[in-house]
């Protein structure tokens, strides 16, 4: 069996590759191979059980059609300055142009027309003034907020559109290997994702890797086996911070999401806020080997009394170390160990006092955890000193921008680790040194987030449709 285009992974970059090929009226036969289920069959049992049951063989929040996007907060960043390094590859103007185009596609499938972070110029100036005082940079970035439940609906419409247009999608199927002959990608070896059996070889003229952050380990193994050129990527080690809505009220109302960047003393690593969820809920995602990672969601119609956001400390390693993904996993494993396999939560004041947090102390606090099965404990016993100090000093700086942010009752959940893949060496058409093999989205190491990953898919769709 042979296809014109084989797409490995049905996350945003893979989905929008197929979508753009259809929009360009391409007659190419397209196959998407997805490890998880179709979107209507993705369901997290925690909605009923209230605790994570560690679904096997994969977590339904992170795996399946549209990847983690289906259950994410669903924020589309509408500025080229946010979401990775794609502007360095194809230019800022081109990226901004593609963002505008891709945004229209999301609107076509039902995205909310409202854009957050526009207007309110005087209020934004005041927030920026405080950020400068704190030694932080406020990045201007309009946001289109889909909402967790709305994102699910939008991606369901896209899935059905692709199926109706004749795109083949193999669900519950994993790619075990890429077949490379004399420097050319020829085919993929697939198997049933549950049993790992029923192997099959499928040939394709173009093979596009769009496996997302969830596929970082697999892609690294492919790079090593097939000598795909790459360099060690960045690993983000951080926490998810939760405060009362009253603390974040001004920022929430004016910007919806404050994208702040700092380089706190003494180490000067890049530290940033990410994925702010006004009235949102802290959540858990499970990766391979039952690795529990914290995240956050925000719904359109269901709200909590709290706002949560990630604070991430970025680390780049030089020779001889070349295993940033494994490093991040080891940190996460230590935190999970202390939480007995659960997400750990600690009050900021207890961190400053050098003590763990106890459940009875959480029960007495103004900030009530929105992740009810998080375990009170001590993050500082697991997160390395350097990123922990970066996070602490960044929170103190944030307190100048948002008074009360560094309250003793502010909650820190961990681990929040972003497993960005090793950065794949690609040309401006996203082709690797293996002819016919392309790499997109977060799996490529070039993007971070829904919009930029979608943009990469749109662009490769445009390029391939002309060939």
UniProtKB/TrEMBL annotation:
<dbReference type="InterPro" id="IPR049516">
    <property type="entry name" value="FAD-depend_C"/>
</dbReference>
<protein>
    <recommendedName>
        <fullName>FAD-dependent protein C-terminal domain-containing protein</fullName>
    </recommendedName>
</protein>
<dbReference type="Pfam" id="PF21688">
    <property type="entry name" value="FAD-depend_C"/>
</dbReference>
<feature type="domain" description="FAD-dependent protein C-terminal">
    <location>
        <begin position="267"/>
        <end position="417"/>
    </location>
</feature>
<dbReference type="InterPro" id="IPR036188">
    <property type="entry name" value="FAD/NAD-bd_sf"/>
</dbReference>
<dbReference type="InterPro" id="IPR028348">
    <property type="entry name" value="FAD-binding_protein"/>
</dbReference>
